[in-house]
């Protein structure tokens, strides 16, 4: 298991309570990377609710698109699904908000 990549993907996912699936569980769904696939697994009971190929998961989370550089820390922050410049985002490295709007 790639723990670092699993944690990165989980951090990019919306919080999804396992109970949304109609089960009596207080856990949340997390990403667990296993050799080319991502298991969507409950962090409380361990139930696997789905399996997705890593490349598809990266596309769904937008890891394969725009690449803005944070003006605060200089690190590259990936965010997908955008053909144009992002207007506002939070740097995943330093946590600072970034206003990507072009000056007028």
Describe, in plain words, how this protein is organized in 3D.
The chain is of the alpha+beta class and 104 residues long. The protein has two domains: 3-60, no CATH class; 65-104, no CATH class. It has helices at residues 3-12, 54-60; strands at residues 29-34, 37-42, 48-53, 88-90, 97-99. The longest helix is centred in the N-terminal third of the chain and has 10 residues, at 3-12.
Question: Which properties best describe this structure?
Answer:
2 domains; two-stranded antiparallel ribbon; 2 helices; 104 residues; alpha+beta
Topology:
Blueprint: H1 3-12, E1 29-34, E2 37-42, E3 48-53, H2 54-60, E4 88-90, E5 97-99
Antiparallel strand pairs: 1-2, 2-3, 4-5
Q: TL;DR of this structure?
A:
With 104 residues, the protein is an alpha+beta fold. It folds into two domains: 3-60, no CATH class; 65-104, no CATH class.
């Amino acid at each position: 298991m790639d723990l670092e990549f699993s944690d990165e993907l989980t951090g990019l996912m919306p919080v999804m309570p396992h109970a949304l699936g109609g089960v009596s569980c207080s856990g949340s769904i997390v990403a667990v990377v296993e050799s080319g696939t991502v298991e969507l697994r409950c962090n409380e009971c361990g139930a696997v609710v789905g399996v997705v190929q890593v490349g598809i998961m990266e596309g769904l989370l937008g890891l394969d698109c725009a690449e803005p550089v944070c003006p605060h820390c200089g690190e590259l922050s990936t965010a997908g699904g955008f053909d144009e410049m992002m207007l506002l985002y939070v740097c995943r490295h330093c946590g600072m908000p970034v206003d990507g709007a072009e000056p007028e």
